[in-house]
Amino acid sequence: MASFGGVAVFNARMPLNPARVRADFPILQQRVRGKPLVYLDSAATSQKPEVVIEAMARFYRESNANVHRGAYKLSEDATAMFEGTREKVARFIGAPSAEGVVYVRNTTEAVNLVAHGWGRKFLKAGDEVLLTEMEHHSNLVPWHLLKRDRGIVLKHIPINDEGRLDLSRLDELCTMKTKLVALCHASNVLGTINPVAELAAKAHAVGALFLVDGAQAAPHMKVDVGSLGCDFYAFSAHKMCGPTGVGVLWTRPEILREMDPFMVGGETILEVFLDHSTFRDPPHRFEPGTPAVAEVAGLGSAIDYIESLGLDSIHSHEESLAAYAQQKLAAIPGCVLFGPRSGPRGGVACFNLEPIHPHDLATCLDQDGVCVRAGHHCAQPLMRRLGVVATARASFYVYTSTSDIDLMVESLNRTREFFGCR
Ligand code: PMP
Questions:
Q1: Distance 109 CA to ligand 1 centre (A)
Q2: Residues 116-130: pLDDT tens digits?
Q3: Which residue's CA is the closest to the ligand 1 atom numbered 15?
Q4: Residue 45: what pLDDT?
Q5: Which of 289, 307, 325 is the last residue of a domain?
Q6: Cα(416)–Cα(422) distance, rounded to whole angstroms?
Q7: In a domain, 1, yes or no
Q8: Does ligand 1 come within 6 angstroms of the Cβ of 308?
Q9: How far is the CA of 311 from the centre of ligand 1 (A)?
């Protein structure tokens, strides 16, 4: 076994061994109420391996200084790490250069940056933005403000009953009036993986730009912004074994150079006079103030870690866990499953156990040390389309094994008994 960035390198095509991977995550070693912790909420945030925690601690212990400012070695080292990680991020998503990589706080901030920096500058009344019915609020609400303030028109690609995009009316929805098509690469509720390259080609054919919310994709599968045809790609470090507080907006540099900064101040400027200022080139024009330097160290380490496991191996591991979970859940009387039952999908199993409210379900599972999410998953329009107010959701990652799913299913059966379900 070779070593890469301080972590063991497995063959990228080798199946993941979740028991071995689990040992890398200190938090997963604990017991909850005397039972092993079964963490099935990785779509909300992933757990962090020791190497990532250590990379951040080491930065604070050995290299902490502000970036881009000091003429001393500590600051130069911090800057080299910060800019070196930008190059690593570019390589991770197949971007030709680091110029298009803007550090933001998370996916939400990334989409807001596009709405403010590009949307407010280039969109006018009557221009259309095409979204989908399965979007997270992060890729809906920023466009609502532009609708209110600029008079843009929002359209949505519907979903079919299987939980995939219904593209039968695409020609009607995506026209010369469409200026941006923006959608999630993978749904945080349905697990659907969308045909991004096909939709990018359609967007470009009508002269629109193409934004991908990669929050649920970049951590789980190989992403190549070039072959996908993206103009904007957004993701968060905290869902890919990295820390909270840092995320990425990648933008095609030609577009980024034309965008307005969204927040300004130190770092973003070239020259400041009392009554006006001039701005730096991208990406620094979009990174005001002191950035999340230690978190960027964590992000770099997280990329090394998940690449050492292999993105293809991660994807197939999660796909088989999703199939296993669906099969086990479908066998429970009263269990209603949401999302595609076949074809490409991510590691998410969304379900309800009728007639138990998903919040009660999550509370009962917690008694057995099983962490699942219950609620609308920041996708209220999708909940309406599914005809529910909330669901339970189990989501998987590199450390999840079939035995975690078995423990959840045992706990669900106990919960049914507790509620007197037949
Ligand atoms: N988009 C999708 C599809 C998500 O699942 C999430 C997180 N649940 C977000 C956007 C927002 O991510 P963040 O909270 O890191 O900004």
A1: 10
A2: 999 999 999 999 999
A3: 106
A4: 98
A5: 307
A6: 8
A7: no
A8: no
A9: 20
Q: Residue 3 domain-assigned?
A: no
For 72, residues 6+ apart whose C-beta sits below 8 A from its C-beta are 65
Please report whether residue 299 resides in a domain: yes
Last residue of a domain, one of 272, 307, 342: 307
Pocket perturbation via mutation, ligand 1, pick of 193, 378, 391 by most ligand atoms within 8 A of CB: 378
When pLDDT is cut at 50, 70 and 90, the band that residue 13 belongs to is low
CATH number (domain holding residue 383): 3.90.1150.10
Same domain assignment for residues 346 and 411: yes
Residue at 319: amino acid letter: E
| 130 alpha-carbon distance from chain centroid | 20
Output the pLDDT for position 70.
78
Catalytic residues: 378
Domain count, the chain: 2
pTM (whole model) above 0.90: yes
Give CA angle at 161 (159, 165), nearest 5°: 25
Based on the domain organization, do 127 and 21 belong to the same domain? no
Q: Are residues 273 and 155 in the same domain?
A: yes
The contacts found for 322-331 with CB under 8 angstroms, 24 or more apart, are 322/191, 322/346, 322/347, 322/348, 322/349, 322/396, 324/402, 324/405, 325/349, 325/394, 325/396, 325/405, 325/408, 328/405, 328/406, 328/409, 329/409, 329/412
Tell me, what CATH number does 285's domain have?
Answer: 3.40.640.10
Q: Would you place residue 71 in the very low, low, confident or very high pLDDT band (cuts 50, 70, 90)?
A: confident
Q: Is the pLDDT of residue 278 over 90?
A: yes
Q: Which domain holds residue 135?
A: 54-307
* Bridging pattern class, strands 373-375 and 391-395: antiparallel
